[in-house]
Amino acid sequence: MKRRTVLQGLSGALTLALAPNALASAIRKKTSGVRKPILVALELSGGNDGLNTVVPFRNDDYYRLRPSIGIPPAELLALDGEFGFNPGLAGLQSLWRNEQLAIVHGCGYSQPSYSHFTSMAYWHTGSPNRGNEFGWLGRVADNLANQRRDNMLVNIGAHQSLAVNSKIHTPVVFDDPHKFQRDRWMSASESPLSNFAGAAFDGRSNRDYLHAIHDSAEASSKLIRSAWQAYTADADYGVAPFDLPKVAACIDAELPTQLYHVSVRNNAFDTHVQQPALHRRLLSYVSDAVTAFIRDLDAKGCADEVVVLLYSEFGRRPAENANQGTDHGTANVMMLAGKPIRGGHYGTPVELSALGSEDNPRHSVDFRRVYASLIDGWLGSSSQVVLGEAFSGFDFFRV
Q1: How far is CA 206 from the centre of its chain?
Q2: Where are the beta strands (DSSP E) in 244-397?
Q3: What is the mean pLDDT of the chain?
Q4: What three-state secondary structure class fits 122?
Q5: What is the pLDDT of residues 32-65, one digit of tens each?
Q6: In what order do the strands lie in the sheet with 77-78?
Q7: Where does 81-239 have alpha helices with state H?
Q8: N or C, where is the chain less crowded by C-beta within 10 Å?
Q9: Closest CA to 366 of 388, 343, 348, 344
Q10: 183-236 per-position pLDDT tens digit
Q11: Where do the domains of the chain lie, and which CATH numbers do they carry?
């Protein structure tokens, strides 16, 4: 066997602090050492249309509200007797059939914002209607390790997401592994930090802190370049891999990172006009990439260690607009994928026959319940500490 993950109980060599159940305190070992559970958050930026992602084809109100863009039952990919997948989600359908995909219905929060910027800030921080200077993933990292560690968080993108902003840890943010560089005009030799190399500091000054960050960034860039150069994909990620092969390379190289954040960029899911063809194509890209990512990790012997979270800042209105698109809405679906997932439906579907203000459905699941489930049940952290209050979780994970 190339690398097999072994789940062990509390009698093992490591117990994750604050673990609420046996899974969260399990040890994931490989031949080369101890491995910890990994979460990959994939953001579908722009507001993915959940109703045309997981379609309630038995609900007459769905077709009444969407006479032009509603997807006919015959075109859907089968899930069960009530719901079908958008035709672009063939890959995720295979995960569903293997019971490796959880669909959470009706996710949202009270007093929803229809602003991309504001609502995404709420999702990034896990603090709706108030916000937080630190992201929810950053706070998870702080709770898992209260002293700074290198490579606790990795954010792949052109800019750092608020989700990974941490009080203690410095997230590694990169786009192209071959072009790891400072986001400024000066060269490494011109950087003021180069003057600190080899200097003796007392460990308390700002200079010392900056020097440590500089050294950490240099070391991380070398690790990631090396990981990317050594990586070979064992699955076809399709047309748009959304940075997931870079995550797979880091995992395969056994970086200590437990928290990754990637996104579908440029508000791609903001489908106000001529939605059907564009939305199906975007979903097919996501579906192919996520499915390949899980298959790739499985071939490398580490799929048991990884869960993928798919989320968006809001859903779309149930009623189509005049441009065969949809406008900013409220409640939405979230999905979790991976071998550790107990597949199925969770939460309560939105009520389309009794819409609330501005003709949007009321959310039935606070999205922080999903975060809490991941924090407590998968990562072995404390959701009450991270989120500032207690939320009842879902039983997403196989024991």
Answers
A1: 33
A2: 259-264, 306-311, 332-337, 344-347, 365-366
A3: 87
A4: helix
A5: 456 799 999 999 999 999 999 999 999 999 999 9
A6: 54-55, 84-85, 77-78
A7: 90-97, 116-125, 136-144, 206-230
A8: N
A9: 348
A10: 554 444 444 444 444 444 444 567 766 666 666 777 888 999 999 999 999 999
A11: 6-387 (3.40.720)
Q: How far apart are CA 316 and CA 284, in angstroms?
A: 19
* CA 289 remoteness from chain centre: 13
Alpha-carbon torsion (309, 315, 320, 324), positive or negative? negative
Residue 78 — very low, low, confident or very high, per pLDDT cuts 50/70/90?
very high
Q: By the 8 A CB rule, do 169 and 138 touch?
A: yes
CB 395 within 8 A of CB 343: no
DSSP string of 262-274?
EEE-TTTT---SS
Closest CA to 263 of 384, 164, 177, 375: 164
Q: Find the mean pLDDT for residues 116-125.
A: 98
Contact between 383 and 376 under an 8 Å Cβ cutoff? The reply is yes
What is the distance between the alpha carbons of residues 249 and 147, in angstroms, rounded to a whole number? 26
SS3 category, 8: strand
